[in-house]
Every structure is written in C-alpha cells, then in structure tokens.
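re: ur question from yesterday

yeah so i grabbed the chain u mentioned. its 246 aa long if i counted rite. heres the sequnce exactly as i have it in my notes:
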Amino acid sequence: MKIISWNCNGAFRKKFAYLSQFDADVLIIQECEDPAQSNNASYREWAKNYIWIGNTKNRGLGVFVKAGTTLEHLTFDHSFGDASLKWFIPFRHNNNLDFIAVWTQKSESGYFGYIGQLYKFIMNNIDDINSQIIIGDFNSNKIWDYKRTEGDHSSCVNLLSKKGIVSLYHELMKESQGEELQPTFYLQRNLSKPYHIDYAFLPESFSRVASLHIGSHADWLEISDHMPIILEIPHIPLALRRATET
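ran it thru and got these structure tokens back, copy pasting raw so excuse formatting
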C-alpha cells in the first residue's frame, strides 16, 4: 500500500498529474481546490473518490483514493469552544485501515493555532486514537516549543507515543525530534530556509514493516514549497488487522 501526503501550494488542478507516477492508493493533499467547485474538467474527472474540507473552494484539505475502493469519513470531535479545529479528516480506507489527515491552521484564539490545533484534537479524541495513521502538514517542529507553555510539538509527540503511535521518519532515520536532516519544506522556496514540518505517525507495529521517502527539492521545489512524503506499507501487521476488525 502506498500513501502520499503533499502540500501542493495551491493550484492542484494543474499539479495532480505529477503524482500519477506513484500509483498511490491514498493521497492526502493540503492547499488543494474542492473538485466539486472546480472549473477544470480534468481535475473533476480525476477526483472521483474523495473527501474535501475547507473554508474556500480554492484552499482546503483533500483525501483522494483509487476508484473502486472504500472511503468512509469518520466522526471525531472537532469542537473548540464556539469554533472548530482545522483541518482534520478522520477516515477509513477499504474498511480495514484508519487515518487522520492533517493540515493544521491558524486559530481565531491565536494561542491554539497550528500545532495547538492538533494538540486539542488529540485531547478531544484521546480515547478513540489508538491505531490510526496520522499524516500530513503539521506546520510544526520541536524547535518552536519555546513559543508555547501548553500544546507544543513535543506534547503531541508524547501523547501519541503513549498510545503506541510514533513518527516513522524518526524511527527509521534514528534522528531526534528537532534534529531532522531531511527537510520537507523550504520557506519561500529558498534552499537556505529548510524545515521539517510534515509527518507520518503510525502504530509502532507499522514501523517495523513500513518505509518512508521524502521528495527531493530538485524534483519538487518548482512545483511547491513542500516536498511530498511517500509512505509504503507492504502489509497490515496481524495484531493491527485484528484490532481494526473488532
């Protein structure tokens, strides 16, 4: 199974063909247009099996899967006072694997923006988070923990670790949070401003069988400021398969 998360930096209607080379089962795309409201016929034709959420038709979070596969939007608690946590898509693929697609956003409250949104989402749904793949643009790194007294990057990593969910990149590369050598984002598409802010968190049992590849700036920087993260899982571990079936 192949899963790709990519912040396309807008205009996905002109860029989706770049992903065809991967023949991915699941695409999680940040900053993409709503296919239902797009004037681009090719994009509408391509996006036959998807979930999309967003504030405007031109910028949102989309999950796209192959035609003929099952895609179910799951119910989670997105509440935050009178507002809503943005943007998260909990979904089930082919009735046997659960995901939470992520694109963290600013918050009207200011403080709980970006990684704070993910922190609140995890806390809201802590009892239901146990075997999901949590993947996307977190807009976060441990290097910015000093800006928060609650709900920082490390807090989210620790909460997920207690649920047996770990960052695949860090498991495979044996690098510490905040000390990543491979960027996923170049601010203003500037090679001198690299950051690692996109992640794939998985149940620990997956980390023993899965692989992860980050796209090269030589291939992707002209298209987007984010590099795609490409996750491959040869099979669902037996223990996890039993958990999803119960």
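noticed a couple things. Residues 115-124 form the longest helix (10 residues). also The chain has a mean pLDDT of 93.
anyway ttyl
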